[in-house]
Structures are given as structure tokens and as C-alpha cells.
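Hi team,

Filling in the usual template for the complex we talked about on Friday. All components are listed, including any nucleic acid strands or ligand strings, so the model treats them as one assembly.

SUBMITTER: L.P.
PURPOSE: interface mapping
COMPONENTS: two
RESIDUES: 354
SEQUENCES:
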Amino acid sequence: MYEVEMKVRATHEAVRERLSALDATHVGTVTQIDTYYDAPHRDFGETDEALRLRREERDGDAATRVTYKGPLVEAASKTRRELETGVDDGDEMNDILGALGFDSAAIVEKERDRYRLDGYTVTLDTVADLGEFVEIEREAPEGDIEPVREGAAARLRELGLDPDDQIRTSYLGLLLE
Amino acid sequence: MYEVEMKVRATHEAVRERLSALDATHVGTVTQIDTYYDAPHRDFGETDEALRLRREERDGDAATRVTYKGPLVEAASKTRRELETGVDDGDEMNDILGALGFDSAAIVEKERDRYRLDGYTVTLDTVADLGEFVEIEREAPEGDIEPVREGAAARLRELGLDPDDQIRTSYLGLLLE
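RESULT (copied from the run log):
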């Protein structure tokens, strides 16, 4: 399965009105504080890797995960090797990484408010220092990527947004620009 | 508080008989499989650091912790900076460390059978590839280190062991010799 994903800048107030009019289902809100690290022995920007500590809060429950993302294996599908585990104590994990020479390079803090609409997930992201975005995504089997992408574009238009405004840069990338 | 600790090679069968005769209390058994890592950018042997993933099983419950130990801050008391957190998935953590360039340098696998004797903890360690050891330990305030050490030596003698046989090298050190 492939993850089809489009992201645009958008004012949430107007989008929420459209979601309500289209009878979208509210899924829930999650807060994510992501710390990305520099490596002491190679440049993750050049090697296209990432090391992330994510502190997540959902309905009052907090969880922390450490994730390694390897370089793109296949560019078209954006497939990467991803390794992840939950950790009990995010501060200790951050300090362990620091002691090993991995320093915090950037912190991405966002609130994500999720809706379901016609089989798509619509996420209203409020990102600290960047502002408001809307992301639409859905999994697709390899042969169905194009129709699913067209469907995502159609949903964006229903929400009063322009798929041509798509931003391909990650929030981390936008913050580091 | 300081950790006073003495370790000698010993055949467990004879020590168990002495522990029983001395009315020691059996605390429980734990299995520990410790993986120690090499760093890609410095020599932990030279910097006197350690990075360890410990998989522990106690009464059927499994737990994994990742621990960083810094260099000795104070040689006499063997004080080190120690950072630690539990992790949900030891295999993923091991793979994340591997992807970041930290390779397994040694694995120390041991079964630890603990007893309490006159305020001391007596641990019967069976270490893979090394054999059987007995460790005696107790916390002591700074002013009381010497009497607690003498008490540990006295307990070892009660167990039919010779404190002069003390081994100061860690199991990891013995394995790497």
C-alpha cells in the first residue's frame, strides 16, 4: 500500500464550516512535539535520514516514541525504512541521545485535528511558527494511486481549497528554510 | 549513598548450602541479556562510556531498558552519570542503534539469583561463557564505606569464600579479555 498525501496552507475556520456542511466525521485531536536530531558523524540532510523523538498527547494520554527514518528506497512511492519503538521516559531518551552526540536540530510542535471524509483522512494542522495547514491522505494499492490522488484533489476543492497550492516540503523542511 | 560491592568466582552449590545454613532469605531470580555497543565516532573503551540494551526477565515478565553510562566522575566512589529509559521494543531499539552506526560489541548473558543476608544482597551469577560468581553488595553513606566493606568481607568468609579473591573487572571486561 502507498500513502497518497496532499498538503496546502489554509485557514481552518472556513475549512471547518465546509467539513460540517459535508457531514465529515470528527475523529479527534492529537498534540505532537517532535524533536529532530543532528548526528555527530554524518549529515542527515545529505544522507536523507532522520532521527525523531515524538511526544504525543491524545485525550490526556501521553506517549513518546523514537523513530529512525532511512533514505528514500523508492522515490515515486516515497518508501523509507522506518524503525520505531515507544520509550517510557522522553527526557531520559533525549539526554541519552545528547550524551551520544546527537543534538536537537529542530523542534516541530503541532496540534492535529482529524476528520474522516469519503474514505479520506482530513487533518487540520496548527504548526508552531508556521501557521495553519490542511492535509488530506488515504492509502492506495499500487495500481490505484492516480484515481486516489484525483479523489484527494476533488475533496480539497469541495473544502474550498486549491490542489495546485500543494506544498511538498515537510514541516521540518519549512522550519529549516 | 555509595554502592559497596565485592565479587568472587565461586561454585554455587556450596554457597547455596551455606546460605541455607545462615538462614538467608531468597529474593528471586532474574535473567539479563545485555548488549553493549560500539560508537561510530568515538572509542567507548578510551572515553570510558558505555551504551547498553538490557533485556530482563523476572517471574515471566520481560522488560527492556536502554542505558548510557558516562565516564567516571569520581574514581574512589565509582560515580558515573547514568541515563536510562525503558523501551517497548528491544529489537526495534537495537535496529535503530544499528542504523545510526552503533554496532553490537559484546553480549553479556547471565542468570542472577538473589538472597538477603544480614542487610547485604548476595547474588549468585551464572554468566554465559564465564561461569559462576558470587557478588555481595550494600549501600553505604560516605562515612560508613569502610565498615560496610569489612562487613561484606566477613559475610563472604561466612559463605566459605575468600575476599582476597575479589575480581574488580566487570563481566563485560572479562568477556573482552
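MY TAKE: The beta strands of chain A are 2-9, 25-38, 50-58, 61-74, 79-87, 103-117, 120-127, 131-140. The first strand of chain A starts at residue 2 and ends at 9.

Thanks, L.
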